[in-house]
Write a structure and sequence with these properties.
By secondary structure, this protein is of the alpha/beta class. It has a single domain, classed as Arginase, Chain A, CATH 3.40.800. It has an 8-stranded parallel sheet, with helices on both faces. Helix 4 runs parallel beside helix 5 and helix 7 runs parallel beside helix 8. The N and C termini lie far apart (42 Å). The mean pLDDT is 97. Keywords: Acetoin catabolism. Pathway: Ketone degradation; acetoin degradation. Belongs to the histone deacetylase family. It comes from Motilibacter deserti.
């Protein structure tokens, strides 16, 4: 019998709340799960809770002193320790910060454990993907690095090769840093160039420490990159590297802030291209990992038009019930959005884009900034796997 698909959802997820003016509003999670439910996507999947990650788990990637600082900030936000990145404009302190953040970690770790053991075939935690949190500091709206802890837990359980693919518009710096010296973990991040966007890192030459060469992969995309260019970059880098690395499990981060409507970044993807990338990662999990796939959310700050539709598509693909992009958004959901935020909700699950692209194998233009970015990544990493960076 096929193991069920799991989707993590717990009321505690809405407690991760930096305040009414912060872009990382829990509204995005609420609207996503309501949309998925109205579309019937939760029927037949196992909805799991979010256990609280304990200190032992958190300290797989975080310093004990930092965990103590998060607890203290959650008890007295006015005294948050700025030296640990807490209480900043990006990551304000709030009451219960430790507990809310540890629930996110617990949900992603549980997803990884269940996928590794075979209890679940795929597992999705849209609240996860907090990829900027560092060993001793919060950063970029991220308190604890749930993906990093989950990967460390997989290694602890005996995994020998774990691949992490990050399609958020921002560089997945915290996860990369956690495993930069570890040849068992391949991290791939496709993001807007650090010349234009936080956190200012993620260059092709940052490709892994001695002994782990080629296991950190960064595709730094020019501002304005749209569907065809982004999908071309993904296709030119991700599938060939996963085929060579042969991961036993795939962990992915699906920040929806690569969308053209996102207010904090400068790429120009459609929901249709985002859906195409999710479908590609699903196929790659089956091609190389016997289907073992842990998918998380991440960034995404257009909380009505973009994030709910993007992550509902993610849940649909993980549940083996991909949606026709022309599917109407349910009237009950649209009415809820109108009552809650006072503006119209999108009518359909598509932006009307084709999500087509020209494969890299058809040749490249050395004068094109996008192709230059792709070639820089391939040149930095592909020789480590005996692959030719050229088409």
């Amino acid at each position: 019998m096929t193991s069920p698909v799991e989707v993590a959802w717990d009321a505690s997820f809405l407690s991760y709340d930096f305040g009414p003016c912060h872009p990382m509003t829990p509204l995005r999670l609420d609207l996503t799960m309501r949309l998925a439910d109205e579309l019937g996507l939760l029927a037949g999947v196992k909805v799991t809770d979010a256990p609280l990650a304990d200190e032992r788990l958190l300290e797989l990637v975080h310093d004990a002193g930092y965990v103590d600082a998060v607890k203290a900030a959650g008890a007295a936000p006015e005294d948050a320790d700025l030296a640990h990145g807490l209480g900043t404009d990006d990551t304000p302190a709030f009451r219960g910060m430790h507990e809310a953040s540890a629930h996110y970690v617990g949900a992603t770790v549980q997803a990884a454990e269940h996928v590794w053991s075979g209890e679940a075939s795929h597992a999705v935690n849209i609240s996860g993907g907090l990829h900027h949190a560092l060993r001793g500091a919060a950063a970029g709206f991220c308190v604890y690095n749930d993906c990093g802890v989950a990967i460390a837990r997989l290694l602890e359980l005996g995994a020998e090769r774990v691949a992490y693919v990050d399609v958020d518009v921002h560089h997945g710096d915290g996860v990369e840093e956690a495993f930069y010296t570890d040849p068992r973990v391949l991290t791939i991040s496709l993001h807007e160039t650090g010349l234009a966007l936080f956190p200012g890192t993620g260059w092709p030459g940052s490709s892994g420490a001695a002994g782990a060469e080629g296991t950190a992969v960064n595709v730094a995309l020019p501002p304005g990159t749209g569907d065809a260019g982004w999908l071309r970059a993904f296709d030119a880098v991700v599938p060939p590297l996963l085929a060579e690395f042969r991961p036993q499990v795939l962990v992915s981060q699906h920040g929806a802030d690569s969308h053209a409507a996102d207010p904090l970044a400068h790429l120009a993807l459609s929901v249709d291209a985002q859906q195409a990338s999710y479908a590609a990662l699903h196929r790659l999990a089956h091609d190389h990992c016997e289907g073992r796939w842990v998918a998380t959310g991440g960034g995404g700050y257009e909380a009505v038009e973009v994030v709910p539709r993007a992550w509902a598509h993610l849940i649909a693909i993980a549940a083996h019930r991909p949606l026709d992009p022309a599917t109407p958004c349910p009237e009950a959901w649209r009415a809820y959005v109108g009552e809650l935020v006072g503006r119209p909700a999108p009518a359909r699950m598509t932006d009307g884009a084709s999500a087509s692209f020209a494969p890299w194998t058809g040749g490249y233009d050395p004068a094109d900034p996008l192709d230059q970015a792709i070639l820089a990544t391939r040149a930095a990493v592909f020789p480590c796997y005996g692959l030719d960076p050229q088409p």
